[in-house]
# Entry
Amino acid sequence: MSKSELESLVTKEALTQLIHDELAGLQLSTNEYIQIANSILDAALEKKQVNGFAAGDYGVKPVKKLPVSSDDITIRPFDPGEDIKLLRRWTADRAGKEFLLSRLENSAASVDDLAADKDTIFGIVCTKDGTPFGIVGYLNRDREQRKAEMRKLIGDPALRGKGYGKKATKLWLSYGIHGLQLRKIYLYTFDTNLRNIRINEELGFKLEGIYRAENIIEGIPKDVIRMGLLLGDR
Ligand SMILES: CC(C)(COP(=O)(O)OP(=O)(O)OC[C@H]1O[C@@H](n2cnc3c(N)ncnc32)[C@H](O)[C@@H]1OP(=O)(O)O)[C@@H](O)C(=O)NCCC(=O)NCCS
# Structure
């Protein structure tokens, strides 16, 4: 090994040690280490997206009003009279309850309270033939600050993991950006909700913070992470 190769190796080892020391206190899981390593690689390859999307970046037509459609799904406005029954059914299981849970207040909002809340906007995700199978939402919409908290739920468990969550999120973001003119969209998720985290990362959300052992779910303390999407200079 040449001297310069040795120096380079030593530098890399020192850098790795430095990064490791920085991360050690965070008690990260193996998966989180992999995510961080991937992010560093992306940044090095200059693949990393700028935190701020311009119009049309999700490959969907900018939309100002609902309904909004892609090839195989549509998001239509929430009809409180009709859709409340769907929402009750979809939020009955544990995964569904995550949709209702305010992770920071540690309490689940009731379906009826959320549906009646003036700062909450829901959209119902449907197949092309109009069959509803999911719901997306902006909660705590702050008109002055132009920001809101995004939530999503594929209500039919059989349809999870088939790409619909990502498609619905793209459409819902387009509506939030162009229709509601949001400047910032944020969300809270358990660090174990890999599907959710993956979608958010791919669509430009950045980690804003970790709330350690924020909730106890079925006796197990769970970390909550907050992610945010900034929409350019708006
Ligand atoms: C979270 C949720 C909306 C995601 O939607 P989905 O349709 O199930 O997810 P998708 O099929 O679009 O998959 C999203 C990504 O996760 C990946 N993924 C799928 N299953 C996975 C798994 N078991 N582990 C890790 N990643 C997985 C997919 O490959 C995809 O990434 P890619 O686009 O790079 O291939 C849905 O699972 C859901 O409703 N969960 C219950 C409610 C909830 O947790 N909501 C979020 C908090 S409000």
